């Protein structure tokens, strides 16, 4: 698909981002069925009723270990079921897959026309929710650190030793997200709904997972 510009189809609504953190290992997924959700990477495993939109950033088709190369067939099934798939990987801008939506990648921060990368899909998902017009964005599973020897609730990606290095990089780059949030999307709210997140509490207001439902 060609590079696409999103419309504010969720204007004034709440959007929940499904991150990959291990804190979601025991999450009550069915409670997301009536919510507007954007899932990062393997969140599509829950199907479109729980993960309405899936976004990934690791999409080099020449790399057999990239997310796109490994899970393209599964994403195709998800899309056939009604899920929507986005990416901001430059190598897929002119990809002819009809169900794949591509957007321009911005290296850092939050973009008003494309998707900021910031070295992690979670930041791109937040950017997408803001472009959809969401008034409040709730980040779930943004642990930004490995736990119990695993980096993710789905246990599909990096080893814990590699994740320690990657998560440190993720945290550093989230500072650009914070800066652009205040400069470009100051009328929108972003909450970190992640128990024991490694992101500084001064960056995003933090609320416990158990307290999320009373806010929606």
Q: Can you put this structure into words, describing what you see?
A:
The protein is of the alpha/beta class. The chain has one domain (14-212): sialyltransferase cstii, chain A (Alpha-Beta Complex), CATH 3.90.1480. The protein has four helices and nine strands. The protein has helices at residues 67-80, 121-131, 160-184, 209-212, and strands at residues 14-18, 37-40, 53-56, 84-87, 100-102, 105-106, 115-116, 136-140, 189-193. The chain is globular and about 40 Å long.
Question: SSE layout and pairings?
Answer:
Elements (H helix, E strand, L loop, with lengths): L13 E5 L18 E4 L12 E4 L10 H14 L3 E4 L12 E3 L2 E2 L8 E2 L4 H11 L4 E5 L19 H25 L4 E5 L15 H4 L4
Parallel strand pairs: 1-2, 1-8, 2-3, 3-4, 4-5, 6-7, 8-9
Give me the side-by-side strand order of the main sheet: 5-4-3-2-1-8-9
Q: What is the CATH class designation?
A: Alpha Beta
Number of domains: 1
* Rounded mean pLDDT score: 92
Q: Write the CATH fold name.
A: sialyltransferase cstii, chain A
Strand content: 15-25%
Overall morphology: globular
Counting DSSP H or I runs of 4 or more residues, the number of helices is: 4
Structural class: alpha/beta
Question: What are the main properties of this structure?
Answer:
216 residues, alpha/beta, sialyltransferase cstii, chain A, 7-stranded parallel beta sheet, two-stranded parallel sheet, 4 helices, 9 strands, 16% strand, globular
Short description:
The protein is an alpha/beta fold and 216 residues long. It has four helices and nine strands; from the N terminus they run βββαββββαβαβα.
């Amino acid at each position: 698909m060609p590079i696409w510009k999103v419309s504010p189809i969720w204007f004034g609504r709440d959007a929940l981002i499904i991150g990959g953190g291990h804190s979601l290992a025991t999450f009550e997924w069915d409670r997301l069925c009536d919510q507007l959700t954007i899932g990062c990477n393997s969140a599509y495993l829950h199907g479109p009723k729980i993960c309405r939109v899936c976004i990934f950033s690791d999409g080099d088709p020449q790399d057999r270990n990239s997310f796109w190369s490994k899970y393209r067939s599964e994403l195709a099934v998800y899309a056939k079921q009604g899920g929507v798939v986005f990416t901001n990987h430059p190598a897929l801008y002119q990809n002819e897959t009809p169900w794949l939506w591509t957007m321009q990648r911005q290296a850092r921060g939050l973009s008003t026309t494309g998707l900021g990368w910031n070295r992690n899909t979670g930041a791109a998902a937040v950017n997408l929710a803001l472009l959809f017009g969401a008034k409040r964005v709730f980040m779930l599973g943004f642990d930004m650190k490995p736990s119990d020897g695993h980096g993710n609730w789905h246990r599909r990606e990096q080893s814990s030793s590699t994740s320690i290095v990657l998560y440190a990089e993720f945290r550093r780059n989230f500072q650009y997200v914070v800066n652009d949030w205040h400069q470009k999307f100051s009328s929108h709210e972003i909450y970190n709904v992640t128990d024991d997140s490694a992101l500084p509490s001064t960056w995003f207001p933090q609320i416990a997972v158990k307290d999320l439902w009373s806010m929606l």
